[in-house]
TrEMBL record:
SMART domains: PKS_KS. This is Ketosynthase family 3 (KS3) domain-containing protein. Belongs to the thiolase-like superfamily. Beta-ketoacyl-ACP synthases family. It comes from the Bacteria. It comes from Paenibacillus donghaensis. The keyword Transferase applies. GO terms for molecular function: 3-oxoacyl-[acyl-carrier-protein] synthase activity. The keyword Protease does not apply. It holds the Pfam family ketoacyl-synt. Keywords: Transferase.
Length: 392
């Protein structure tokens, strides 16, 4: 089987709209969190990470536009259009949890566009994929959408790399996208897990998530296709693992059994031992239960090595971007290998005795990195873990 390598990236986020700026701010521990009043919460001020300065609840097509922006940037970086003229053996995989919902929330949007459902442009959840297909100069051979809650775009990455390794496709454009919406605010508020202070993953005083938005594109190709274009490629997607807790709808298995299974599966598919991982980009949401569960799962998988591996949560700076988080954090994992630097977990002040690993508190660190594991877990028991490796 051939190698699945990364040839192009695109990003839009609260920390920047190009890969260099984005990673530089992450490395410095810059927070994208702001405090704003949200009318649907009774004008209560809440913390959030918006990707633009506009009102986050007044742009029903925002997830579409964010995705379009990162698509164009990734295409430019990869010079993809030099090789693929007709879309043959090209895939477009979208990861999103609620990307279409802001459109359906908008009464005006729903009334004006309901008749367009027949041409797929607003068909939940494939509307974003159909929209982006129209922005390409060719029709991709395989177009699909992954909606596995907060694991959506990590699962998209895993499945894309698998199809390339099995020579079913030569190239897959993977995009994770999510915009802030009333649905998200009301849903997470009803669960009582929106932070009243700020997001503090793994800290003993953590009190919940901060909602964020953004998009990332990662173009994955067969190694030979990239070599023919004579362009550099960034990393290899060495393998991935997917599991399901089947525990509770909105609560992970507190013992981390499902999370451990997907991490072990990722190591096995990558042909790596647990001692080979140099950095873990954690799911790290900042909720009491999730951070303790992930810590337990890491200990199960990495055993005596668990205290030696640097682990950090990008959500401490980006907020929780739900279905886009896997693509954004995958992009961070890729850039950590390229730049040989591990971003910190910011807002970490008080250790939790049940979260007792190395979370790279507040200050990032330079380190030689060959293999990075990125975890994404979601409602419904969805678990996913993907491994990125340096290529020589």
């Amino acid at each position: 089987m051939g190698r699945a390598v990364v040839s192009g990236l695109g990003v839009v986020s609260a920390l920047g709209n190009d890969a260099d700026t984005f990673f530089s701010r992450l490395a410095q521990g810059v927070s994208g969190v702001t405090e704003k009043s949200i009318s649907i919460l009774g004008e209560t001020k809440t913390f959030l990470c918006a990707a633009t300065d506009s009102n986050p609840l007044e742009e029903p097509l925002k997830a579409f536009k964010l995705a379009e922006s990162v698509l164009q940037d990734a295409l430019k970086m990869s010079h993809l259009l030099d090789s693929y003229k007709n879309g043959e053996r090209v895939g477009l995989f979208i990861g999103t949890a609620t990307g279409i919902i802001p459109v359906l929330e908008s009464e005006r949007g729903l009334i004006c566009h309901i008749n367009r459902l027949k041409d797929n442009s607003l068909k939940p959840y494939n509307g974003i994929a159909e929209y982006l297909t129209g922005k390409l100069p060719f029709k991709p051979m395989f177009v699909t959408t992954f909606t596995s809650a907060c694991a959506s775009s990590t699962i998209a990455l895993i499945e894309a790399a698998k199809m390339i390794r099995k020579e079913m496709l030569d190239c897959v454009i993977v995009i994770g996208t999510e915009a802030l919406s009333s649905y998200d605010f009301l849903g997470f508020e009803s669960l009582g897990i929106i932070s009243k202070t700020n997001i503090k993953p793994f800290d003993d005083d953590r009190d919940g998530i901060v909602l964020g938005e953004g998009a990332a594109a990662i173009i994955i190709e067969n190694e030979e296709s990239v070599k023919k274009r004579k362009i550099p490629y960034l990393v290899e997607i060495a393998g991935g693992g997917i599991s399901n807790d089947a525990y509770r709808l909105a609560t992970p298995d507190p013992e981390g059994t499902g999370a451990a299974k997907c991490m072990n599966a990722a190591l096995q598919q990558s042909n790596l031992s647990y001692g080979a991982i140099d950095y873990i980009n954690a799911h790290g949401t900042g909720t009491k239960l999730n951070d303790r569960m992930e810590t337990k799962a890491i200990k199960q998988v990495f055993k005596e090595n668990s205290k030696e591996i640097p682990i950090s949560s990008s959500k401490s700076m980006l907020g929780h971007t739900r279905g886009a988080s896997g693509a954004l954090e995958g992009l961070i994992s890729i850039l950590s290998i390229v730049n040989e630097f591990i971003p910190p977990t910011i807002n970490y002040n008080t250790p939790d005795k049940e979260c007792d690993l190395d979370y790279v508190p507040n200050i990032g660190r330079a380190a030689p990195i060959q293999h990075v594991m990125s975890n994404s877990f979601g409602f419904g028991g969805h678990n996913s873990s993907v491994i990125f490796s340096k290529v020589y």
